[in-house]
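Quiz preparation item.
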């Protein structure tokens, strides 16, 4: 490509050196950012490391106090941040506040109040060697690399960022190429409230920039994104022996039992499938409804879906905004087309809206089968396939027939039965009679099992994961020697074996 062409391509956001951020609802250009290469990324990691040296030495309560100032800065500018989230990601302004800003404010408050206690040394009572004392000691890892997706460009990376920082680390954040401006806005607010200048770095770019971050000497990677990229990240981290956390795709099943409260269930499914235009890792992606309530449930879901108002994400009268980028719209179209050609029927929605903007109407599919892609592969868009099942056993079996295991849902009025079913659903989180919200609860872990992830975020243990864990053991009495030290002798042998005979003597079974 000649230099004039390169410049033109670059100006269109296709070239190697610049990314153009656009409003998916209007096509309007919102700004552009540079694509950072390996040298700039390494430089950012180095500057973060220098800033971390002093930050990591502060007491956890002082770090917490300063992060609360960051929270307050975000809250002070809620409307401005919500508007940018809405413009860059296509979500409604209410979703920007309730699914993004609120979550970060609450998570920051939760960990700021408790970090000192959570990160305090933790005693490990020893069952046998009572003359020794063991405890775990938590220290910052150094620089945490955070690689983020575009669907929640604030709550996902900023939640991880706040946890990493409270634990005493610096952060280098690589946002998605689809939503770089919101990450830069966070950096602006971070610096505006007097945080150490280089402690949070944002490196903008495409996948190559994420790969460069893994290669830039960071001490841990926290990755959220697709299974396909997750595998590459795991391989790159494995090659460098860097610890990593992977939060990957989902295919959340919803089991609707014969005794479910159908009004609540239908409301929950519609919000759970179409909130944020279905671009949620824990979106309701497939429904297994008991045959006795199937018709009534479908009728309710379809009626509620048809009544959703889709349009300008900035309007308070809009329920469903735009999808974030064209690639995802194409995936959704493809999933629906394939399903319909194999016999599925769309009772609401079904094809993208004409005109400017990436609007895809909420779609309800029936006559689906478990072997269809729409029931097996992640859709990540506003599509709810509903399948009739003969029994709850069938529903559990089909729910577990998946390579993914992030979140699952059970609807029933019998909470005891619901819990029994939930415990058999192979997902990191299973909710009974509710959807989506638990990502927003900072004290519960966010875990993907099967191919939905490795490791976890959130929760007190998640904060400790941001630290290096060291086991310290103290000898409490300091006698001249331990029994098992030199010199060895027959006498020691007899003491050890008779002690073993006493400690591990066979129990009499009744
Ligand atoms: P991707 O995997 O495409 O991208 C995720 C991030 O990784 C982006 O910042 C991307 O950059 C970057 N990246 C791409 N290639 C590489 C590479 N080789 N090395 C390092 N980084 C790289 O996912 P999406 O952004 O499309 O996000 C959607 C996916 O995320 C869905 O599968 C969804 O289920 C999942 N997700 C999971 C969540 C969970 O908590 N389990 C939560 C939210 C989403 P760029 O975008 O610039 O290419």
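Solution:
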């Amino acid at each position: 490509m000649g230099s004039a062409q390169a410049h033109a391509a670059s100006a269109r956001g296709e070239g190697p050196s610049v990314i153009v951020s656009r409003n998916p609802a209007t096509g309007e250009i919102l700004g552009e950012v540079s694509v950072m290469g390996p040298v700039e990324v390494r430089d950012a990691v180095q500057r973060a490391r220098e800033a971390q040296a002093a930050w990591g030495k502060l007491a956890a309560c002082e770090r917490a106090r300063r992060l609360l100032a960051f929270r307050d800065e975000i809250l002070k500018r809620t409307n401005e941040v919500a508007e940018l989230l809405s413009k860059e990601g296509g979500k409604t302004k209410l979703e920007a506040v309730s699914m993004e800003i609120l979550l970060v404010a609450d998570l920051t408050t939760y960990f700021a109040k408790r970090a000192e206690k959570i990160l305090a040394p933790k005693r490990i009572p020893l069952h046998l060697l009572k003359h020794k004392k063991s405890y775990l000691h938590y220290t910052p890892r150094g620089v945490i690399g955070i690689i983020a997706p575009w669907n929640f460009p604030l709550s996902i990376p900023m939640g991880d960022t706040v946890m990493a920082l409270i634990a005493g680390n610096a952060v280098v954040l690589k946002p998605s190429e689809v939503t770089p401006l919101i990450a830069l806005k966070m950096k602006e607010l971070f610096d505006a409230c007097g945080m150490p200048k280089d402690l949070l770095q944002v490196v903008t770019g495409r996948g190559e920039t994420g790969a460069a971050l893994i290669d830039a000497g960071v001490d841990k990677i926290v990755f959220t994104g697709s299974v396909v990229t997750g595998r590459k990240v795991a391989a790159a981290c494995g090659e460098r022996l860097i610890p990593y956390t992977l939060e990957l795709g989902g295919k959340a099943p919803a089991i609707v039992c014969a005794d479910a409260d159908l009004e609540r269930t239908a409301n929950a499914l519609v919000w759970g499938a179409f909130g944020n235009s279905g671009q949620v890792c824990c979106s309701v992606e497939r429904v297994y409804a008991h045959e006795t309530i199937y018709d009534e449930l479908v009728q309710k879901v379809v009626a509620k879906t048809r009544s959703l108002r889709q349009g300008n994400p900035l309007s308070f009268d809009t329920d469903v905004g735009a999808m974030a980028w064209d690639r995802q719209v194409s995936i959704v179209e493809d999933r629906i087309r394939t399903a319909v050609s194999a016999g599925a029927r769309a009772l609401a929605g079904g094809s993208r809206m004409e005109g400017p903007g990436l609007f895809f109407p909420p779609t309800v599919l029936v006559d689906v089968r478990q072997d269809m892609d729409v029931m097996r592969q992640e859709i990540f868009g506003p599509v709810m396939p509903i399948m009739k099942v003969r029994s709850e056993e069938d529903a559990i079996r089909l729910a577990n027939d998946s390579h993914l295991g992030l979140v699952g849902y059970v609807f029933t009025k019998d909470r005891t039965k619901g819990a029994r079913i939930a415990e058999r659903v192979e997902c990191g989180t299973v909710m009974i009679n509710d959807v989506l919200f638990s990502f927003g609860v900072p004290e519960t872990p966010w875990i993907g099992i099967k191919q939905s992830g490795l490791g976890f975020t959130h929760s007190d243990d998640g904060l400790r994961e941001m630290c290096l864990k060291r086991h310290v053991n103290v000898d409490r009495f300091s006698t001249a020697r331990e029994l098992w030290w030199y010199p060895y002798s027959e006498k020691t042998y007899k003491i050890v074996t008779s002690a073993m005979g006493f400690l591990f003597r066979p129990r009499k079974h009744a």
